[in-house]
From TrEMBL:
Keywords: Cell cycle, Cell division, DNA damage, DNA repair, Mitosis, Nucleus. GO terms for biological process: cell division; DNA repair; homologous recombination; mitotic sister chromatid cohesion. Gene3D superfamilies: Leucine-rich Repeat Variant. This is Sister chromatid cohesion protein PDS5 homolog A. SUPFAM superfamilies: ARM repeat (SSF48371). It comes from Linum tenue. Its main location: nucleus.
Length: 1253
């Protein structure tokens, strides 16, 4: 063994001791030499000497090192100010501890200062870039090797031990060398092995939850290494927190859940007796504690998953109970924790139980919880698409119909992301197409049915294109999904799809018009051109979620001078492939510029203008898909229906797929759909008609009635110039089939359709066809028929054939073009009148009661169809019988008739007077029909109120309001007056009158107080004005058919006036409608006798005053009949006629006493009859059916002042607004109606007739 280092240390120590004040440089030099020498000295025990020799060596080393030890403790060197000196001394001290171990190199009184010096060195270990870091690390290593830190415990330096732990945690870094961390760990664990304490445990736990990786990692190491030593202290801390947290004097008590989780991660065994305490916290009344406990338990489950659930089953069960906790915060925390658990353990049994709890939260009462549940379910499904429970995806999809907008928005965004992930997986063939994911687009479509601006069909269209499929998904892949999507469609889905496509088509059409106008603007800058452009912009703006904002953006766009922008926009309107469309859109937006203030609007515009949802590429792929083998029949039908839905609105998209269409002709399962596609788009494709001729002819004869109808339309659209020849040949074949009795129902349908497309072709065989229908079909007899169910009329086969024959006759009077009829319409109407009256088609033919119902219904519907063209020929009797079908004894008949009437009124295909049917059914015994009547009437009010004023003004006509729903009371009063159930003259019961007049009251309610006009005071007041004018006009007229019915008309008018007054619930003045009041002369005429005006009867007025509150209360209704409208009116408590305090007393009054007194006489001096004036009826008035039987009556209210000039035969009847607005109208008093009556009495009445045709 070399003694040179030992001698050097001895000499240097002696030399340093002799120096009283060594300078810094010499001191540093000496200390460096000593430090280097001490490192070279081995411990005696590590030498190869034997026992006695080792002892001698140890004594020798101790003696040699004594001078240095004395220098360190005697010269205050331990407190030297220089940091380098301190470091070198620390090195020396550490080496002395190593060499002299197990003996302590210094006396106990000096050890505190020695250890402080070492701790000071350790505090600099964080600076790894320092040139002294190596020496500091060597001190750490020496201390760890000799375990001298244990000495601190022997000399009562517990505070220094605590400081040592804190120092290590403060300086340790994640980038430290492993040896540094290992030495720290060794020192700390050695101390804990000797004397663990609560204070040391607290320091470790505090650093365990730090975000810095170094301290937390070191804490994990020490807990794992000394878990047995730390366990009592850690458990004690947690037990105190669980049992009495307020008594714990430790900052960690506020975050003990976090600490517990971190401890459990590294030493779960330590907490076996602690974890069960969580069950108490899960049930505590403190919400914040439950939230923290739930969060902790969720993390523990995510950490150890199914194993934890098995070991702590009670806790797992309690966690599931927290999904239904009364606190929203707790429920939301439970959802978050369950998400982490499932992602970590997707295939474990406990995960299934967690997912079942999710389903309940989708229906949570709190919208935030529902939204969060949807988001988490979508995230979980995306992480495990193949095995995620399909039922849960379907249930989450239903949140798209949530009542809260915020939930619907979040659900839409996350479900779209989920569906895109699913599409990518399918395109990679990693999973098959499945129903539960394909239901997502079907539910997105249904958002159009929600009454919300955020989810109108305009927004849905944007979602279907931008968010449904990934942008790079091919047309073939999109087709695969669309085929499966539409196979899940219900009729409502198809309706919504048609609505979305129709609005897109309207925007594209209007955009083409706008671009065309813009091109011509340079050549024509007139006001008309600018007006047309504004009109076009207004129409296009209606296709956007915010029309007003869109209109502003359109005006800004219109100011652009760059023609390339509009040229590119025009290209977007063409049928482009998916790739070309994306390229053109990018080109358009690039021309606009990224910084354009309307960039968002222009992005949406470029999307809407393009064939964004479907294009010819998609249609061709669907047709190819239909030709593939192994396709299920349901998917075939759905795919064909998809093509039909698209080409019905965009027929040009079928162009280019002619070959694929022709390949499907041999597939009989698709014959019906294919024929309809050809009927819709046949004129837009380029084919040889001969390739389709045989197929279409066969369908006209052998197909179903629906298919044959479309087959005739397809022939007419595809035959081109050969249409007449081909239809003539087809008609000959059909007549031959009719003679043979082959497929009679289909043949009749085809013949009727031919009559509509080519009346001249039909009339070649018209007499033979009519003869066959009248003499053979109509005379078929059947002794009995099937019973009528509550849902449908099960008429006999021969009855069905009669109805089919009737439809053929009716269609022959409704050609698309031409008007040369060989058979008079009056004969047809006579046949229908007989059917309406008797239900029979021919005399002497027995017809069962069920068949009579079906025939009467078919006749009524035929009248509706004919009224579109032949309304002037329909007599009052036929109109009355037709409308009264709404009160038929069969609920099936009533339902079918009301539905047909509504459908035609919505299309404006029949006059508005047929809406009387809804009033007659308003108090139907069947609640569904009552609700349907209200809905149907609301639709008509909304449509006609919106359109009638514009149509009349744009035509430059007088405002006769004959197209307004309010005008229907003209016909309703007449129907009621001629009803056989009109109360007898000697009737003494107001309830009888109230029940009888309920249709009139219902109509007035709908027009003035209904939900459709509830928030539109102007519309309600306009209807009040029109109703009053009609009622006063009727009071001045007589029954044109039965003079005995005049008193009934007038009492109904009086009741109507009082009804209007009782429902007028605002104090705003009502202006009488300006212009004439026209009454149909087929129903009304002017009285030929001038009558004296007499004062009113108090008895009559009392009777009418008692009638109104009964009507409003609904007390006349049959037992068990719920009248919701009457209840609403009672709750509203509107202004009445001063009858609130009158008792409902039954009195006996003759009928004549109920007639308004002013109608019994007119002051001769104030009234004169004008001469017969010629008045040319406009086409609109004819089409509205105002002049049945070729004549019309006009009762006009004019000025009665003596200053007015007489009206001659050449004068026009004009009245200023002031003449029709008496001051009494502005007064809120019971004399309102009487004042109005006085005004109307002091007017001219004159009758105008004009023979039409």
């Amino acid at each position: 063994m070399d003694d040179a280092p030992l001698k050097l240390v001895s000499q240097a120590g002696a030399q340093l001791c002799r120096l009283s004040r060594p300078n810094k440089d010499s001191l540093l030099k000496s200390l460096r030499e000593v430090a280097e020498s001490l490192v070279q000295i081995q411990h005696a025990c590590s030498s190869s000497l034997e026992g006695l020799e080792k002892k001698k060596l140890a004594k020798k080393q101790a003696a040699a090192l004594l001078p240095m030890k004395e220098f360190i403790v005697k010269r205050e060197i331990l407190r030297h100010a220089d940091r380098e000196v301190q470091l070198l001394v620390s090195v020396c001290v550490a080496e002395l501890f190593r060499i002299l171990a197990p003996e302590t190199p210094f006396a106990d009184k000096h050890l505190r200062d020695v250890f402080k010096l070492i701790l000071g060195t350790f505090s600099e270990l964080a600076d790894t870039g320092s040139p002294y870091f190596g020496r500091r690390a060597s001190v750490l290593e020496a201390v760890a090797r000799c375990e001298c830190c244990v000495v601190m415990l022997d000399v009562q330096c517990g505070d220094l031990v605590l400081e040592l732990f804190k120092t290590f945690f403060s300086v340790v870094r994640a980038y430290h060398d492993k040896s540094v961390k290992k030495n720290m760990l060794h020192i700390m664990s050695r101390i804990l092995n000797e004397e663990p304490s609560q204070r040391l445990a607290d320091v470790i736990l505090q650093n365990l939850i730090k975000e810095e990786e170094g301290p937390s990692q070191l804490a994990v190491y020490i807990i794992q290494k000394c878990d047995y030593e730390l366990e009592p202290f850690v458990r004690g801390f947690f037990n105190s927190c669980f049992l009495n947290r307020d008594a714990v004097e430790n900052d960690l008590k506020e975050s003990y859940h976090v600490v517990l989780y971190e401890v459990y991660k590294c030493a779960p065994r330590m907490l076996l007796t602690v974890i069960p305490y969580l069950s108490e916290e899960l049930r505590t009344d403190q919400v914040d504690v439950r939230v923290k406990a739930v969060n902790l338990l969720g993390k523990l489950l995510a950490l150890r998953g199914d194993q934890f659930a098995r070991e702590h089953h009670d806790l797992f069960t309690e966690l599931k109970n927290r999904f239904s906790d009364k606190s929203v915060d707790v429920r939301r925390s439970a959802l978050h924790c369950a998400r982490a658990f499932y992602i970590a353990n997707p295939c474990w049994k406990a995960s299934e139980e967690i997912l079942s709890a999710f389903e309940g939260r989708l229906l949570d009462l709190n919208d935030e919880v529902r939204a969060q549940a949807v988001v988490i379910i979508c995230d979980l499904a995306s992480s495990n698409l193949e095995s995620f429970p399909p039922g849960l995806v379907v249930t989450a999809t239903e949140r798209l119909r949530d009542k809260k907008l915020s939930v619907r928005k979040k659900a839409l965004a996350r479900l779209m992301k989920l569906y895109q992930d699913y599409c990518i997986k399918c395109s990679q063939r990693l999973m098959a197409i499945t129903n539960h994911f394909e239901r997502i687009p079907t539910e997105v479509l249904m958002l159009c049915c929600i009454d919300s601006k955020a989810f109108r069909s305009q927004t849905t269209e944007h979602t279907l294109w931008e968010d449904l499929f990934p942008a790079n998904l091919s047309a073939e892949e999109r087709t695969r999904h669309w085929v499966h999507i539409v196979s899940l469609f219900t009729p409502l889905h198809w309706k919504v799809m048609a609505s979305v496509l129709s609005k897109q088509n309207r925007l594209q059409t209007e955009m083409r018009t706008y671009l065309s106008l813009r091109k011509n603007e340079k050549e024509n800058t007139s006001e008309v051109m600018q007006k047309n452009i504004k009109k076009s912009i207004s129409k296009m703006s209606a296709s956007f979620p915010d029309p007003s904002k869109a209109q502003e953006c359109f005006y800004i766009l219109n100011q652009l001078k760059d023609c390339n922008v509009f040229s590119t926009l025009e290209l977007l309107l063409e049928d482009l492939t998916i790739d070309d469309l994306q390229m053109k859109r990018k080109e358009f937006l690039k021309l606009v510029g990224d910084k354009h203030p309307q960039l968002d609007f222009l992005q949406l515009l470029s999307l809407k203008c393009s064939f964004s949802i479907f294009n010819s590429e998609i249609i061709r792929c669907v047709l190819v898909h239909l030709s593939s083998e192994g396709l299920e029949i349901e998917q075939k039908k759905a795919s064909a229906k998809l093509i039909l839905a698209v080409v019905s609105i965009f027929p040009s998209l079928l162009r280019g797929s002619e070959t694929e269409v022709q390949m499907l002709l041999e597939d009989d399962t698709l014959a019906g759909e294919l024929v309809e596609v050809l009927a819709k788009a046949g004129s837009h494709i380029f084919v040889e008609f001969s390739d389709f001729d045989a197929f279409l002819r066969r369908q006209c004869i052998e197909g179903t009635r629906v298919v044959s109808k479309h087959a005739v339309s397809a022939i007419a659209s595809m035959a081109g110039t050969s249409e007449q020849v081909i239809l003539s040949q087809l008609c000959e074949e059909l007549v031959n089939s009719l003679r043979c009795g082959w497929k009679t129902s289909t043949v009749l349908q085809s013949l009727g359709c031919i009559a509509q497309h080519s009346l001249s072709t039909f009339e070649i065989h018209g007499e033979e066809i009519r003869s066959y229908i009248f003499n053979i079909i109509f005379k078929l007899s059947q002794s009995d028929g099937p019973a009528c169910s509550e849902e449908r009329l099960n008429c006999s086969d021969c009855c069905q054939l009669k109805i089919f024959g009737l439809k053929t006759l009716v269609k022959s009077f409704l050609p698309h073009q031409g008007s040369h009829f060989k058979w008079a319409i009056d004969k047809m109407l006579a046949v229908l009148l007989k059917m309406l009256q008797t239900g029979d088609t021919s005399d002497g033919v027995f017809t069962c009661e069920n068949d009579k119902l079906s025939i009467r219904l078919a006749a009524a519907k035929s009248i509706l169809m004919l009224s579109n063209r032949w309304d002037l020929h329909i007599s009052p009797k036929i109109f009355q019988l037709t409308t009264l079908m709404a009160k038929d004894s069969s609920p099936v008949v009533r339902k079918s008739f009301l539905h047909k009437t509504h459908k035609l009124l919505k299309k404006h295909a029949i006059p508005v007077r047929y809406a009387c049917a809804f009033a007659l059914a308003a108090h139907d015994p069947c609640e569904d029909l009552r609700d349907a009547s209200s809905k149907y009437m609301g639709d008509i009010i909304n449509d006609y109120v919106r359109d009638s004023q514009f149509n009349q003004k744009s035509a430059g006509q007088r405002e006769t309001f004959t197209g307004d729903p309010a005008y229907m009371v003209v016909y309703l009063i007449y129907i009621l007056a001629h009803d056989d159930s009109f109360p007898l003259e000697e009737c003494q019961d107001e309830r009888v009158y109230a029940q009888f007049c309920s249709p009139l009251f219902w109509v007035i309610q709908e027009l003035t107080r209904g939900s459709h006009v509830k928030d539109r005071v102007d519309v309600a007041n306009g209807n009040i004005s029109r109703l009053l004018c009609v009622f006063y006009a009727i009071k001045k007229a007589e029954d044109a058919i039965d003079p005995q019915g005049t008193p009934k008309l007038r009492i109904l008018a009086d009741i109507g006036i009082l009804m209007v007054k009782s429902l007028q619930h605002n104090a705003l003045p009502v202006e009488l409608t300006q212009g004439p009041v026209l009454l149909p002369s087929s129903l009304y005429k002017l009285s030929p006798v001038d009558l004296k005006y007499v004062s009113g009867s108090s008895d009559r007025q009392d009777f009418l005053n008692r009638l109104i509150p009964i009507q409003k209360s609904g007390n006349f209704m049959p037992a068990g009949h719920s009248n919701k409208r009457s209840r609403d009116l009672q709750e509203d408590k509107p202004r009445s006629c001063g009858t609130e305090n009158n008792a409902l007393v039954v009195v006996s009054l003759p009928l004549q006493s109920l007639i308004a007194p002013e109608t019994q006489g007119i002051v001769a001096a104030d009234v004169s009859l004008g001469q017969m004036l010629e008045y040319a009826l406009s086409p609109d008035l004819e089409s509205e059916g105002l002049c049945s039987n070729h004549t019309a009556t006009e009762i006009q209210l004019g000025c009665a002042s003596t200053s007015c000039n007489p009206i001659s035969s050449t004068d026009s009847a004009t009245v200023s607004p002031s003449m029709l607005q008496p001051e009494a109208l502005n007064q809120k008093s019971d004399g309102y109606v009487q004042s109005l009556e006085d005004t109307c009495v002091s007017t001219y009445l004159f009758l105008i007739f004009q023979v039409v045709g």
